[in-house]
Amino acid sequence: MPKAIKSIILILLFTKLVSGQTGMNIQVVDNQTGEPLPFASFYVCRIDKQNTGWRGKEYGGITDSNGRARFEPMDTGLYFVKSIYISYLEDSASNIEVKSNMLSNVILKMQVRPGGGIIHDYFIINRNLKKDSASKKR
Questions:
Q1: CA 22, CA 102: separation in Å to the nearest integer?
Q2: CA nearest 29: which of 83, 75, 77?
Q3: Which pLDDT score is estimated for 57?
Q4: What is the domain partition of the chain in residue ranges?
Q5: Can you say whether residue 95 is alpha, beta or left, with left for phi > 0 and alpha for psi between -120 and 50 degrees?
Q6: Position 118 pLDDT exceeds 90
């Protein structure tokens, strides 16, 4: 096969791969600092056109160490995105449009839970424990 034909085929394949990206970029950040929230859980679901309920594919996962995730390929349409992160209030976005041959960008800005996001440790004490025979001898 002549070199020119090989080059044309490679260019066409590359163009198809680059232009065929239909999907969504998600970034989860702290709403006050703008810092990324690594390993945040999120859920993506397609919405029907009449907005009467859910249908179609559902996606889920966690963001990377930079608070980012990417889904592709995706069907075109409207989507709902929700994110959950420890010590933060849930955040969501609705009617995110995914168009053919485009990557839609979604930034979820999460707010720290009231109380500063402090997690308290709780201990359960069982007062009905019986002493073992070794402790009785002491």
A1: 5
A2: 83
A3: 74
A4: 22-115
A5: left
A6: no
> Model-level pTM?
0.66
Is the domain covering 22-115 a CATH 3.40.50.10860 domain?
Answer: no
**Distance of alpha carbon 27 from alpha carbon 104, whole angstroms:** 11
Rounded to 5°, the CA angle 108-86-31 comes to 35
Name 69's Cβ contacts closer than 8 Å, sequence gap at least 6. 25, 26, 42, 61, 62, 63
C-alpha distance from residue 9 to each of 3, 12, 101, 117 (Å): 10, 5, 20, 55
| Segments in the chain forming alpha helices (H) | 3-19, 133-137
What pLDDT is attached to residue 120?
52
**Given pLDDT bands bounded at 50, 70 and 90, which one contains residue 131?**
low
Q: How do residues 12-58 score in pLDDT, each as one tens digit?
A: 545 444 445 889 999 999 999 999 999 999 999 888 766 555 566 78
